[in-house]
Amino acid sequence: MSGLRVTLSVDDGHPLDMRTAALLARHGLPATFYLPLCNREGPPVLTGAQVRALAQDFEIGSHTLTHRFLAGLDERSAWHEINAGKRALEDCVGQPVQGFCYPGGRYRPLHVRQVQAAGFRYARSTQNLRIDAGSKRFEMPTSAQFYPHPRTVWLRNFLSQRDRAVRTPALFALLYDADWLVRLHRLLALADARGGLFHLWWHSLDIERLGLWSVLDCFLADIAARVPRSRRLANGEVFSAGAAQPPAGSALLRAARAARAVPHVPPLHPSTPSENSAI
Ligand SMILES: [Zn+2]
After folding, report:
1. What's the pTM value of the predicted model, to 2 decimals?
2. How far is the CA of 75 from the centre of ligand 1 (A)?
3. How far is the CA of 34 from the centre of ligand 1 (A)?
4. What is the topology classification, in CATH, of domain 5-146+195-257?
5. What is the rounded CA–CA span in Å between residue 132 and residue 34?
6. Do the beta carbons of residue 191 and residue 128 sit within 8 Å?
7. Where are the chain's structural domains?
8. What number is the average pLDDT over the span 163-172?
């Protein structure tokens, strides 16, 4: 067994996240749901009661107050989106919210500092093609989005984002086959072979629109078959035992944590903060 670890995240807080949660629970997989309080782009969001139900079994992170792209805001408005989004979500769930995700992956170094000042413990970006946790707690990268992106999109994304050397093996895995799902399986196999961290993220609404529920089900089954429960992590558990913890009352995660000994992730490939585009 390679030591592969997996962490999953789901963005935007669409009501279909409840279906995603049921799917994840069936496979015994933890995940972090990044939620705005409303989505100014139009789609509905989970009700307060749904958010509280979700928080019973999964880590809840913030995705700003109204899902505005921070890079397009002045400093004061960005702070409001970050800070008020955290407070409102904490009021809803009745517990600290320790993780943050930058909407659209669009942010600047100022926003990283604001996220830290608001009291978050870590933040996820949309940098992809990574099979490691990176070295920056406030710019956690991902491996891939669960979405049928054509190869040209992966290539363009590779070229537009930093840390190319460390991202090259994943790029080749994702260029290998004409079928996007075969490519994604190859990326998972690469992370497994390297004993890395596989971080998959998605939007529940995309899964619905593209009719991918059964495909996602099969992919999660593959993950569950490869990764023992002790190495299935919420995003907040990735960096160290001292990082954000999943909900204390979670039966799903309590069982996983009982057998868990999470190794500290050594710093890898320091890089310069810069605006980071969503794929
Ligand atoms: Zn989003």
Report:
1. 0.86
2. 20
3. 8
4. TIM Barrel (3.20.20)
5. 20
6. no
7. 5-146+195-257
8. 93
